[in-house]
Write the structure tokens for this entry.
Amino acid sequence: MIYCVEDDASIRDIEVYALQASGFETQGFEDGLSFYQALSKKQPQLVILDVMLPKINGIELLKKMKGHPQWSKIPVIMATAKGEEYDKVIALDLGADYYLTKPFGVMEFISCVKAVLRHYQKCNEEMLTCGGLKIECQSRRVTANGEKINLTYKEFELLQLFMSHPNLAYSRQQLMESVWDTDFLGETRTIDMHIKTLRKKLGVYGENIITVRNVGYRWENKNE
């Protein structure tokens, strides 16, 4: 089940129709309150969440979801008409997995949904370590010196990719293709924002993500 929270009926109808036509069970909500009430009864696979909503806005709903032990792992795609970097950064910092800027095309929308779900389903059983930083890949649990670190699924995918291939430099385009998939039409600026939030969450281990000038990023095992 995918929940679409959008107060504009025409946009909500298009989202629901496109998802159902692609084989997804979908339910639409016109405001944050009705969505929040439904969330308490049934958890979806994914939430498409508009930022500007009546009663409870999308940012507040995102905070509530990521602060709830049962809802914090539900992937969230934020949709905003503003297109301002501030809104995007705030959403990513709060735990959103991606954002879409309105107006967006149906193909981009469906591609994004599929990429998010596909990456959420990918996981192996190995554990990756770097000093006191540990990734339990199957449970998607990340700890630093025994303290749990809450990452969005994109942040997790980036960290897992980096730690799986230390010292290998990735261009922004390569990271986009590896983490967002080749059929996802995203912006390479997204990579920089995710790296920024990932570094912050990792604390001292964030220094292991090295900026490679004119290329992109690489991981160095400095804390072993």
Summary: The longest strand covers residues 46-50. The CA atoms of residues 163 and 219 lie 7 Å apart.
